[in-house]
Amino acid sequence: MSILKDYAAYAEHSGSKLKPFVKTMFYCNIFFRISYVLYKIKLIPLARIFWLFNRVLFSVEIDPRARLKGGFVILHGTGVVIGYNVVAEGNFKVYQGATIGGNVGKKRTANGRTFSQPWLQPDVVIGINAVVAGPVILGAGSRVGANSVVTRDVPAGATVVSNNVILAEKSEVVL
């Protein structure tokens, strides 16, 4: 179940099995998971209420149509936006002010899938105030630095700084 993976990710990040319960952003994940389930069973007005709870209580906007597998962690979530149809295949971390989504009607096909929003592979980290826009793929283990703007694919293990500048592939840089 996704919420259990979210709990495990928060516990691993904080180094304690009890700390997720005092992390406000963990509750943001719970509200998103409820919103997602309600959307899937076509209770859209209720889904929007939980979406609104996240927006008002935590200043985090995660569209209920986003397909985020369990294990994501939001750190200092104020201003985080995750758009509709964003796909995340596994664990990822998002820092404050990051925006994931947005496109101007662009669609793309890769690996047999058509998508219009970012596609995050496992273990991605998105830094403070970073923007990941359009149908791009962030490879497994990639890092997006603070204030970066990503509009093109990022290879697995790469670190992006500034505007689509790949600093290094398989970098040891810690954000």
TrEMBL record:
Top-level taxonomic group: Bacteria
EC identifiers of the protein: 2.3.1.30
SUPFAM superfamilies given in the database record: Trimeric LpxA-like enzymes
Annotated transmembrane regions: none
Matches recorded under Pfam families: Hexapep
Gene Ontology biological process: cysteine biosynthetic process from serine
Keywords of the record: Acyltransferase, Repeat, Transferase
Catalysed reactions, as listed in the record: L-serine + acetyl-CoA = O-acetyl-L-serine + CoA
One GO MF term attached to the UniProt entry: serine O-acetyltransferase activity
Gene Ontology annotations for the cellular component aspect, listed alphabetically: cytoplasm
Homology family: Belongs to the transferase hexapeptide repeat family.
Protein name (record): Serine acetyltransferase
